[in-house]
Every structure is written in C-alpha cells, then in structure tokens.
Amino acid sequence: MNHKGTHIFLDFVNFNVTREDLDETCKYVFSLMEDSLTYTSMKNKHGKMVVLKDDTEEGFTSVILLDESHITAHSYTKIGLLALDVFTCGKTNPKVISDFIKCGLENKYPNIKCINHQINKRFLYE
Q1: What's the pLDDT tens digit per position in 33-44?
Q2: CATH topology of domain 2-125
Q3: Taking each helix axis from N to C terminus, what angle separates 22-36 and 94-108, rounded to the nearest 10 degrees?
Q4: How far is CA 62 from the centre of its chain?
Q5: Which of 1, 69, 92, 103 stands the most exposed, by the fewest C-beta atoms within 10 Å?
Q6: Nearest residue to 114 via CA among 32, 15, 11, 21
Q7: Residue 17 and residue 63: Cα distance in Å, rounded?
C-alpha cells in the first residue's frame, strides 16, 4: 500500500507544571514547535497557543498549521500528561520535527517520559 502522508503521535507522562509556570511552559513548547521547522522546508501558515486555567482542566493547547499539514500539542499539566502529534503529507519526514521537540522537552523537563511513540502512514492508496 502506498501513502502520501505520515502521522506521528507521542504521549508523555510526568509533565507536571505548576499553575504559576503554565504560561511560560506553553510558550516554551510552542517555541519548540516553531523552531523545529528550521530543519525542514515546511512553512508555518498559522499558529495559535491557548493556556487553559479557569474554565476547563488546567493545561494548554497549541497548533501550527503547515503548508504540508500540522503540529499540535495538548496537555493536562495537573496530572502530567502531554500529547504531541506531527502530520506531514509532502516530502518532509515528520520524525525530524517530532525528534527536535522531544529532545527539547527532555532537556528542559528531566522527569518527562515518552510512553507512546507511533508512526502511522496516512493518505493510503493502491
């Protein structure tokens, strides 16, 4: 089976962040997402990060829309969960992006642990 896209999912635990550090943490993760693109030819078409504190479970959500798909990060920081996904549907290998972000997270948060790393083929065709 042929494919046009590749989708990577990473699930992290031990990503506990205090309420006081939540804004700065969201900015840091978003900057990793943006900076990861410097190692690719992909273009950031639109980015948005939202810190969630009062009207929902504490954490953040971030997305970067790319010319070849997207990068997202979602967290539940009180219980230490972070989910990252990187989807590309062109020539760029999303592993370059996910590895950069994972390395940045592990350097800054030494207790973080990736417990799920899936690589899925998308846009399948015969």
Answers
A1: 999 999 999 999
A2: S-adenosylmethionine decarboxylase (3.60.90)
A3: 150
A4: 8
A5: 1
A6: 11
A7: 19
